[in-house]
Each structure stands twice: as structure tokens, then as C-alpha cells.
Design a protein that fits this description.
Epimerase_deHydtase, NAD(P)-dependent oxidoreductase, alpha/beta, aldehyde dehydrogenase (NAD+) activity
Length: 286
């Protein structure tokens, strides 16, 4: 029975994936941060010294990485990835599936597909989560060709499940909802259960593509999505007020570019495509 190690097994995206993979006849081990310990198939330890943790099995077939050190620096996150790469080499891993993000792409792009180059650290004004994701992907892409195992980057849209609220819809009293953006703004949404099924497809695929997109290939706008999931009046935020004016203020040096990028992110109009992913994995995201 093939063994899978889940890094960050208690993250929101990973919830219930153990059951899904077990039902597909995989043996699952789970890693979470803490003092080195092991209880049944749950392993704890320091993310920066994975290779020296004595509680891991000698080999694993597949590793799925959900971990991002959100309260850490870029340096912390890259050091973790270096630790994970070293671990995968030592434990003879065949395939590392790493959760990236669509935030690695520039907001200005007209088209975003699986072959689109990521934004670089030198180019981006993003800070926090987006900047960390860019830094880690940039590092992984720089070493990919030298790795003795398969590296697959998955870039999901915003993940929904268990009545998790949509991030760009704010519900107000009297049946009114307001969208963070205008009628042309986009933010791909994906259901967690679809992600889990796609991961099984990746595991079972002998030769994967380098990058997969996890979201429906429907180019849906925030406004159209809101029409499907809400009732009542839907309001939008004018682009001239919440993007153009902050852009002018940022260019004048009154506010930092990193603050303006938050406004800019509300008005992404890129055509997000997952066609290559759906064709390769023979899956449809709903």
C-alpha cells in the first residue's frame, strides 16, 4: 500500500482528505508542528529539522504540502521548503505536491493559464501571504530540474466548504450584499471536495504537468457568482473610487505601494483558465 505524508494535515484545505485518500486505499501519515512526538499516525516536530525527526517512516511514496508559515518571514518559509526538500530526498519520495496560490500571478495580466510565468519578488508590491507564496514558488522553480523526484505545484482559487463565507461578498442588513470589486472583477472559487479528488488524480498520474489550476474553467465574475449564491440587492464598489484614487495617492507617495496592492487585488479582470488541468486530469471543477 502506497504511503502518503500530509504536511499541515489540520489546515482547512486538508480537512477530511485523510478519509478520501484512505478510501482510495492509501496509507496516511500526518505531520503537524509541535514538540517531536508520534501518536498512531500523527507525527509532530520542528518544520526546520524534518530530516532529523526520528518518528517518520524510512520511506514515503508521496508528500502533500499544505504548510505555509503565515506569521513567519520569507526567509522562514524558504528555510522550511529547503527542510522539506531535504526530507523528500532522504525518504525516497517519488512525488511532492506543493500548494501554491493564484496570488503568485500579477494582477495586470489579461490571461492566466498553467504556463503563465509568476510575478517575481523584484516585480511585486504584494506583502504577507502573497509575497511568501511568490518567494517559495520562485525558489522551487529555480531548483526543480535538479530534484530527484517529481514536483507538482497546485494553484487553487479561494477554497470553500463547511459554510465558509465567500471572501468578496459582504452581507449587510435588509437583504443587501456588497461585492469587493465591480461587475468585471474576478476571484476564482473552488470547492474543497473537488480539490481532494484532483489530488487523487495527480497521485495516480504517472507523468504530471508542472502546474495545475484548481478552479472552474468558466471565467466567472464576482458579480455573477454573487447572483448565484445570494438573494436580494447586490451592490458593487466603484473602481474609480477604490482603485484609481488609491493608485494616484500611491504614485504620489502618500501611501505605500503595498497598501495600494490590496485595492488593486479587488479589481482583477484576468481571464483565469484551468483548461489544461481539466484536460490532463480528466476532471471538471464545479
Amino acid at each position: 500500500m502506497n504511503k502518503i505524508l500530509l504536511m499541515g494535515a489540520y489546515s482547512f484545505v486538508a480537512t477530511n482528505i485523510e478519509n478520501v485518500l484512505t478510501n482510495s486505499h492509501y496509507s496516511i501519515h500526518k505531520f503537524t508542528r509541535g514538540i517531536e512526538d508520534k501518536k498512531e499516525k500523527i507525527i509532530k516536530g520542528n518544520v526546520f529539522s524534518l530530516s532529523s525527526n526520528p518518528y517518520f517512516d524510512s520511506t514515503y511514496d508521496y508528500v502533500i504540502n499544505f504548510i505555509v508559515i503565515k506569521n513567519g518571514t520569507i526567509y522562514d518559509n524558504i528555510e522550511y521548503i529547503k527542510s522539506l526538500i531535504k526530507f523528500c530526498k532522504k525518504h525516497q519520495v517519488k512525488k511532492l505536491i506543493h500548494f501554491s496560490s493564484i496570488m503568485v500571478y500579477s494582477y495586470q495580466l489579461k490571461e492566466v493559464n498553467e504556463y503563465t510565468p509568476i510575478e517575481t519578488l523584484k516585480e511585486t508590491t504584494k506583502r504577507g501571504y502573497g509575497e511568501i507564496k511568490i518567494a517559495v514558488d520562485q525558489y522551487l522553480l529555480s531548483i526543480k530540474e535538479k530534484l530527484p523526484f517529481e514536483l507538482v505545484l497546485v494553484r487553487p482559487g479561494y477554497v470553500l466548504a463547511d459554510n465558509r463565507p465567500c471572501p468578496f461578498i459582504k452581507k449587510l442588513p435588509f437583504g443587501i450584499s456588497i461585492i469587493k470589486g465591480n461587475k468585471n472583477s474576478k476571484q476564482p472559487i473552488v470547492q474543497r471536495k473537488d480539490i481532494h479528488q484532483a489530488l487523487i488524480k495527480i497521485i495516480e498520474t504517472e507523468k504530471n504537468d508542472n502546474v495545475y489550476h484548481f478552479f472552474p474553467n468558466n471565467n466567472m465574475t464576482k458579480y455573477t457568482y454573487a447572483q448565484q449564491v445570494t438573494k436580494g440587492i447586490i451592490l458593487t464598489m466603484p473602481k474609480w473610487l477604490f482603485k484609481n484614487i488609491p493608485q494616484f495617492i500611491a504614485k504620489s507617495g502618500i501611501i505605500p505601494q503595498s497598501l495600494y496592492s490590496r485595492f488593486e487585488g479587488m479589481y482583477i479582470e484576468s481571464r483565469f483558465s484551468s483548461k489544461q488541468t481539466e484536460d490532463k486530469l480528466k476532471i471538471i471543477f464545479n
